[in-house]
Write a structure and sequence with these properties.
The structure holds two protein chains of two kinds. Chain A is of the alpha/beta class. Helices cover about 45% and strands about 20% of the residues of chain A. Among the domains of chain B are: about 230 residues, PAS domain (Beta-Lactamase); about 160 residues, Histidine kinase-like ATPase, C-terminal domain (Heat Shock Protein 90, 2-Layer Sandwich), CATH 3.30.565.10. The longest helix of chain B has about 90 residues. The chains are: A alpha/beta, B alpha+beta.
Amino acid sequence: MKILLVDDERKFVTMLARRLELRGFAVTCVYTGAEALKVVQDGAKFDAAVLDVKMPGIGGIELRRELQQLDGGMKFVFLTGHGSDSDYSVGAREAALYLPKPLKIDDLVDILSRVTGKNPEGGH
Amino acid sequence: MDKFKANLKSLYPHFHRQSDEHLNPYYTFQDYRQIWGVGIFFLMATALLPLIAMTLICYQLVDQSIDTESLLRAERLASNTRRAVSFFLEERLAALTFTVNEMGYERLTDPSRLEEVLRNLKLGFGGLTDLSVIDDSGTQVAYAGPFNLEGKDYSRQAWFMECQRHDACVSEIFSGYRDVPHIVVAVKSMQPEGRFFVLRATLETERLIQTLSSYKTGEHTDIFLTNREGVMQTPSRFYEGDLNRLTIPLPAYSDRTEALISSDPQGQPIVIGYAFIDTKIAPTSFVLMVVKKKAGMMKVWLDLRSNINWLLIVSAVVIALVVFLTSSFMVNKMFDADREKARTMVAAEQNSQLASIGQLAAGVAHEINNPLALINETAGYIKDLFILKEQYRGDAELIEHIDSIIETVERCGTITRQLLGFSRRFDVQIQPINLGKMVSDVINFHKKEAEYRAIAIHVDIPATLPLIETDRGKLQQIILNLVNNAFQATDNGGWLDVRADVEGAEHVRLTIRDNGCGISEEHLNKIFEPFFTTKKEGQGTGLGLSITYGLVKKLHGDIAVQSKQGEGTTFVVTLPIHTEKGFDA
């Protein structure tokens, strides 16, 4: 399963990617919304994108809309540092899929499997 | 009954008990006692001054009319009495003139004829004591009457000398040789050979005094005669002094009956009507005086005046009472409303403090969650390595990840320290504050939002800025509120400029400028009013800036705003560098 991971905390992205890779995901890490758009515009295909809600420049919610236009099949999972922020509720409403930071890796893996209907290695 | 008591209470001034000192910065007026006092003063002045003025004008008018009236009355009385006195003398002079012309010198010097003339004159007029004929040398040549004074020399007497100059004369009242007060009237005539002689009559003064007395009206009126030197001629009840002298000043000569107002030796006002009496036949030295005590004439008016005075006093007391009660009632109501407002403001400030805490907590949670997420992932990864991989021993990457955990924990520590800094703001205490540090602390909490929204924040606070003595928490809230405000007003991609400098020797000036939506001119003077907001209902309480205003005032500072719609807003907070310790912040 191919995952696009977008968060402005570089170290966090690196660590999460490593862990997902250890669990069989193919992860592409980018650190801003613009980079994410560029990657997808350049033709990369992902099963799901994991987006931080609050990022400098293009935020997670807006980024989801644009990515959706580029690739209608892409699924989304949001990460948020705000336990009870309004962004969180917007994200939750739009995607019904959010995870508060700090997250449990197993929850993320479960959700990714659920939204894409695939297991990490790519099979159904 | 309770309602009545409450109403009664609202009439009593209670605004001087400003016991809730923490409300003071929020009162619209600081000194209600002064407002009350000034109000009472002006109300009393406008109510009482015209009343007093009217009363005084009334007094003056009545005084004037009393003066005019009493002058008129005194003059009339003097005029009537003058006529009576003149007539009294003229009648007798005319009788003597008739006698002397009719009888001639020869017959008059015949003692028996003279006796007969005296008898006839006594019958006609009464009050005649004797008659005598005196030749031009002043020697008495014939006499009729009770005293035999034949051969007596009158040439040195005043009346005789007067007679030589005129055809007739009237003497002053004098005692003469007999020590009995009398008047001498005399007429001059010619003997056939050309020498003159004088027919002289002595008049009893009793008749004259009776005539004068008959004109007296009321116990305050005195009518008497003096001569032109002020020597009493007839007795006076009030104004006769030592050596028969008049005790009040003699008025200046006038050929008419006059009246004037003067004062007696005791200083009491009197009205004098007077006339210098002259008969048609001979001049006299008599001055008729009619003296009335003004007090007696004014009695009715004085009674009325005392009634008016009482009316004035009672009205003044009623007015004062009504003014006092009305002022107290109004100022009480005003004070109550203002206190209610101040209480609401304080409560709102406390609410806002709670809201700030909530906001802070959310910010802190967000700030801490990011590093925690990193710790979580890093530690999770290490755990993954232990579980899923074999080659962890002596692994440099592992050390790097552990360092990363430690570094992230430090990051969390920094955030919690800042959080503690914020929580301390609820202690009320004056302490030296580094404004630059405080601003950067506050800005730190907005850093993330600024990054997301691409708002550029410039802070320019010189390191040489002196420490300011003030309350940390309140200053922090002021800055937080203003920065919040700026963030709300600014669109993504805007900028925020915070700078500080020293103003004069005693103040620092903190300027917070943004290029946000700005405030329209019509709203500019209302923004510090409580509950004023341009935000949609439910989105803003309209208290933020009014609380900020209250806080700045609490710190003895000042806040000003400049704004242009569409261009941005500048708030300037001026704070004293030194604040007395222990003041009520």
